[in-house]
From TrEMBL:
It is found in: Mitochondrion. It comes from Tetranychus urticae. This is Uncharacterized protein. PROSITE patterns: ADH_SHORT. GO terms for cellular component: mitochondrion. InterPro entries: 17-beta-HSD3-like, NAD(P)-bd_dom_sf, Sc_DH/Rdtase_CS, SDR_fam. SUPFAM superfamilies: NAD(P)-binding Rossmann-fold domains. PANTHER family: INACTIVE HYDROXYSTEROID DEHYDROGENASE-LIKE PROTEIN 1. It holds the Pfam family adh_short. Keywords: Mitochondrion, NADP, Oxidoreductase, Signal. GO terms for molecular function: oxidoreductase activity. Belongs to the short-chain dehydrogenases/reductases (SDR) family. 17-beta-HSD 3 subfamily.
Length: 345
């Protein structure tokens, strides 16, 4: 404010000087008038100046710190990639037959890990498994399980994983709503899946692998949250809350086990293409820099393991997340409401 007023005064002075020398007298009188009239507010002016300096310094430090996080997350892995095979021989991926999970399976197999895929449809699992075996010299196993069955399903999974050195667990499986809709239109089956598939799997799968990781003093647990978990998302309330749950769980668990050699990473991507059949819009089903394919995304995200424990995993999504973090909440809600209403149509 003070800066704007001073700039306006300067502009008037310049204009006066430019147009006519005879205005100089007027300038002098104006200067005198300004100095004299602002004398009582000098203390106030100094306080505002200090406030401005504090704000500018704080903003600069935040921007520099955000830039350094970007360099550490996305550029540093190119110079010094993490050797992911050091954590153990096997990687387990829930929902590994399609989409992001499939992308992770390929990216981890490329880095020398044997792969265990878990999903419902054995045919899809086998086809993904065969593709991985054809391309990489690794072992692949498939487990057919429906995570929506709840806690009972984990006994089978635990048996199948017993005796294997699990270095990396990717808690990827999750259900997304077909499109934004009011909470009361969500049926109980969908809400049950949000609980069992989006949230339950993360807890129970972690319990299965963590003990052995702690005894070996190394291991990685990657939990796929979403950009929907950063801020509340009206018209996708249950999904958004389930992703915030995944993020909070990951961050607390990381703190609990960081001294035991365990990495817990929360990955919070934006849209990935191609999404499911009933997509929100054509823009979100055409691959682009903002909407990458699952393979492009996963290849970027695995490189961030060990470099940043809470990240979108892909730099253009990092820019989106950063922009969101700059929006005040009182603007966020009406803005996102407007967008969600459009997508709901
Ligand atoms: N796609 C995006 O734009 C996006 C953005 C941000 C975050 N995410 C998150 O990323 C994760 C993966 O999303 P995606 O879009 O890649 O998913 P997707 O393409 O729908 O793939 C889902 C995978 O999970 C399996 N699956 C689904 N329900 C299952 C169940 N009840 N039990 C066992 N397996 C099940 C599917 O195989 P079967 O059908 O054979 O079981 C498939 O392998 C989710 O957690 C999602 O919330 C996605």
């Amino acid at each position: 404010m003070l800066r704007t007023v001073l700039q306006l005064i300067l502009l008037v002075l310049l204009l006066l000087t430019y147009f006519n020398d005879s205005f100089m007298a007027a300038v002098d009188s104006f200067n005198l008038l300004f100095t004299e009239s602002s004398r009582p507010f000098k203390g106030c002016r100094d306080a505002l100046l200090l406030l401005g300096i504090y704000y500018a310094t704080k903003k600069s430090i935040c921007i520099l710190s955000d830039l350094s996080v970007g360099v550490r997350t996305y550029l540093w892995p190119k110079v010094s990639p993490t050797d992911l095979s050091q954590y153990g021989k096997w990687a387990v991926i829930t929902g590994g037959s399609e989409g992001i999970g499939r992308g992770y399976a390929f990216a981890l197999a490329e880095r020398g890990l044997n792969i265990i895929l878990i999903a419902r449809d054995m045919r899809k699992l086998q086809s993904t498994g065969d593709e991985i075996r054809d391309r990489f010299d690794v072992e692949v196993e498939q487990i057919s399980a429906d995570f929506n069955e709840g806690p009972s399903i984990y006994r089978l999974i635990e048996q199948k994983l017993r005796g294997k050195e699990i270095g990396i667990l990717i808690n990827n499986v999750g259900v997304m709503p077909a499109r934004p809709s009011p909470f009361l239109t969500n049926d109980s089956d969908y809400l049950q899946r949000i609980l069992n598939v989006n949230m339950g799997t993360v807890l129970f799968m972690t319990q299965i692998v963590l003990e052995d990781m702690v005894s070996r003093e190394k291991g990685v647990i990657v939990n796929i949250s979403s950009i929907a978990g950063y801020n509340p998302l009206p018209l996708m309330s249950a999904y958004s809350a389930s992703k915030a749950f995944v993020d909070y769980f990951s961050r607390s668990l990381q703190y609990e086990y960081k001294d035991k050699g365990i990495i817990v990473q929360s990955i919070m991507p934006s849209y990935i293409c191609p999404s499911r059949e009933n997509d929100f819009s054509a823009i979100l089903t055409t691959p682009s820099i903002l909407c990458p394919t699952a393979n492009v995304f996963a290849d970027s995200a695995v490189q961030t393991i060990g470099k940043n424990n809470r990240t979108p995993g892909y730099w253009p999504h990092g820019l989106i997340a950063w922009s969101i973090s700059q929006i005040p909440q009182f603007i966020w809600y009406p803005l996102v409401w407007m967008i969600q209403e459009q997508l709901a149509c």
